[in-house]
Amino acid sequence: MERLRRLGQRYRDLKIRDKMVLAFSALLVVYTLIGVLLVEAVTWYGNAKLFEEASGELNVGSSIINSELRRIEDFSFQIMADDSVQAALVQIADHPEGYDTFVRRDALFKQLITLFQDSRYLGYIDLQSADGTHFTVGNDGAVLDLEPAELAQIRDARGGHVWILRPGSPSFAPALVSAREIRDKNSLSLRPIGLLSMKVDVDRLAHTYIELSGGKEIVIARSGALVYASSPEVATLYPKLARDVNTWRILDTARGRVFATHLGTRYAGFDYYTLIPYDAMFSGLWKVKAACIVADILLCLVSLWLIRRLAAGLTRPLEELTGQMKQVQTGDWPLAGPDTDGGPSGADEIGQLYVNFHRMLRRIDQLVEENYVQKLWAKEAEFQALQAQIHPHFLYNTLNSINWLAKINRQHTISRMVEALGAMFRSLMDRERTIIPLAEELALVRNYLTIQEVRFGARLQCDIRVDDGMLDCQIPKLTLQPLVENAIKHGLERVVGTFHIRIRGRLHGEEMTLTVSDDGPGMAQEVIQRVLEGPEASGKIGLRNIQQRLKSRYGERYGLTIRAQPGKGTAVTLRLPCQKAGLAVTEPQVPPPTGG
Predict the structure, then answer these.
(1) What is the pTM of this model?
(2) pLDDT, greater one: 299 or 194
């Protein structure tokens, strides 16, 4: 840090022409960076356009493929719900032998042949009856034997559609199979009567709806497993594609660099990747880079010419301004004339500096007169402060007079209310103390309850019990009173009959808890969340204000918690350290909370 400060000081001590040389060097660096950024921007723009084109084409193709897969899913449901298929499978399940069963078997096989002819993208259709007989139509070789885990997945679907993905191996490519358990729809128990599986010809789907010319390749995956790859070489790249390609990326492969794009779809977790040869497509990019280098050199030459003009334009007005400043040091102030008389004619920084310098000189002359006016304002402010101090004392003395008149006239209820109000008012007038002992806060609560008990009579019952050892612990002023006020406002005014408020205080080592509970209507959990974190319009700014004050003063581990249930009352618990007088830290200037 010290070395940087010395370098900065040496730079400030340089002559302007030396600073211009440094500025020119900085411009060269900036222009070089601009050139590099331009090349990168051109490359990025080309990649973005390529991604836009590839992703658009991939989006269209994948949407059509997903649509065809949905049709296959619907086609399996059509087979399962077909009345003749249902009748044949029920006949086989109930009567495995017999002439009628033989006729049903033959009809079922012929119907599957008819259905297979209507499907373009299926390798085979295999329908297994309850007795284990396979009815298979198609031309895709042997039927895949479903493994126990796959059969369990199909049965767990309870007639729903299931995609079975069989990973590839050196002997065969990955296979995508549509499977569904056929259940007797006419039986209340929906008993299983067969198993339908159909192998999807993914290769035909991909070549039909996605353009794969010009060396373009495609990879289809589902839930992290490879479904289809347009070539064996591309199949080996799938782990790298799944790991590195989120939207698009340039990858190095054995056949050179490729531009890979990724498109995830919402249907059944299918993902689509395209790979486009990159080097052949961007072979002309070096021409653009060369043009950027030439432009960079031209910018440097132009900056050399500009720096010479700027040096002459900057030094001349600065020298004139320096001469006028020396005149000011000797007591000769050049104050006459408009802002721009005798100075630079431009509106650049030098011209503004010249204008502001003369404005500053005229302003100094005005400060002498303004200083006299400010002294008068200070006297007026002192008078207003004295007047503002008189008003609270006048109101407090008036309350004392009302109290004595009530005692003379034996109006003890009025006297008790006025005494409680006067005590509260005296506490609130003390704005210098924002932290008070718990005993004073409880006295403020009792005075408030005295006024409310006169208003509500025997309907309001309050019980205060705190440990004696915590009465001299310091607490922010107006912490408990808003809680009691909220309990009365949102509890007592909404219930019929006696309303109980309980205040409990407990010491736990160097911490203490204060709980204000009632047996009012309570509130729901979402209301509690809104009270503590919601906007001010929720009407509960008192509780949220207390929460913010406690956390700001004591830390995140302290604050208030609310426990409430509709119809079972509300309990608000304050947790804060027990700090004695002289040990408490200074509280941030937060306005005291109001009830509500």
Answers:
(1) 0.44
(2) 194
